[in-house]
Every structure is written in C-alpha cells, then in structure tokens.
C-alpha cells in the first residue's frame, strides 16, 4: 500500500478524524483519548497505530505514558490539519483540544 493510500485509508474513518481533531492543538495519551469515545483503549490504540503508519500522528514515550500528537511537518499532517478546518464536526472537537492545551499550559506555569 502506498503512503497516499495509507493517508486516505486513515482519514476514511470518522473515529480517526475525531482523534485528529482532539490532537490538533495538544498531545494526549491513548487513555485520555479513549475517555472521549465509547470504545476500549485497545481499539483506540489500533486507530492511533493506523494514523501513525499514515504519517498523521507522532508518538513519544514520557515515563510510563505514551503521548500522541498530530504531525504537522509532513504533507499528510498538513492535509489532516486542513480537514480539521473544513469539517464541521471537527470544529467542536478542535475547540475542546484548545481548551485542554490551555489547561495543560496553566498547570505548567
């Protein structure tokens, strides 16, 4: 499967597009993402693996946790960011992502 096909396959899922919206402004653990969906953490992890394979998200280990964020430095990431702007259901989730980012920033200061 080509990288372009991986991107479109990843973006074909509403759940994965919603995950990208949550990651649009902040990084989150798989557990924090799973709390926002009515599905198990292993199911969310599978979605995250597909998004990572498509180059749409990055992951970074921080102690015992693995954080995920939206990849912005690639064409795939740019496409995903654009979709967050034009997809009406993503706007609300992006706003929630911005609020989470502000809360994290407050706790770090």
Give an account of the 3D structure.
The chain has 109 residues and is of the alpha+beta class. The protein has a single domain, classed as Arc Repressor Mutant, subunit A (Orthogonal Bundle). 63% of the residues lie in helices and 13% in strands. The chain is built from six helices and three strands, in the order ααβααββαα. It has helices at residues 3-11, 14-22, 30-34, 41-53, 75-86, 88-108, and strands at 28-29, 57-62, 65-70. The radius of gyration is 13 Å and the shape is globular.
The fourth-level CATH homologous superfamily is Winged helix-like DNA-binding domain superfamily/Winged helix DNA-binding domain
- Estimate the strand proportion: 5-15%
Counted by DSSP, the helix tally is 6
Oligomer: single chain
| Uncertain residue ranges | none
Helix content class: 55-70%
How far is the first residue's CA from the last residue's CA? Answer: 45 Å
| Averaged pLDDT | 83
Question: What summary fits the major beta sheet?
Answer: 3 strands, antiparallel
Under the CATH scheme, which class? Answer: Mainly Alpha
Strand order of the largest sheet: 1-3-2
Structural class: alpha+beta
Number of E strands: 3
Which overall shape is indicated by the principal axes computed on the Cα atoms? globular
Total tally of structural domains: 1
Order of helices and strands: HHEHHEEHH
In short:
The chain has one domain: Winged helix-like DNA-binding domain superfamily/Winged helix DNA-binding domain (Arc Repressor Mutant, subunit A), CATH 1.10.10.10. Helices cover 63% and strands 13% of the residues. It has helices at 3-11, 14-22, 30-34, 41-53, 75-86, 88-108; strands at 28-29, 57-62, 65-70.
């Amino acid at each position: 499967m080509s990288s372009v096909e991986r991107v479109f396959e990843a973006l074909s899922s509403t759940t994965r597009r919603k995950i990208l919206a949550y990651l649009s402004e902040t990084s989150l653990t798989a557990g924090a993402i799973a709390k926002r969906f009515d599905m198990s953490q292993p199911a969310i992890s599978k979605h995250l693996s597909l998004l990572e394979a498509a180059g749409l998200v990055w992951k970074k280990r921080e102690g015992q946790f693995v954080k995920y964020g939206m990849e912005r430095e690639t064409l795939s990431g740019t496409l995903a960011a654009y979709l967050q702007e034009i997809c009406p259901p993503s706007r609300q989730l992006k706003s929630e992502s911005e609020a989470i980012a502000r809360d994290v920033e407050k706790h770090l200061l």
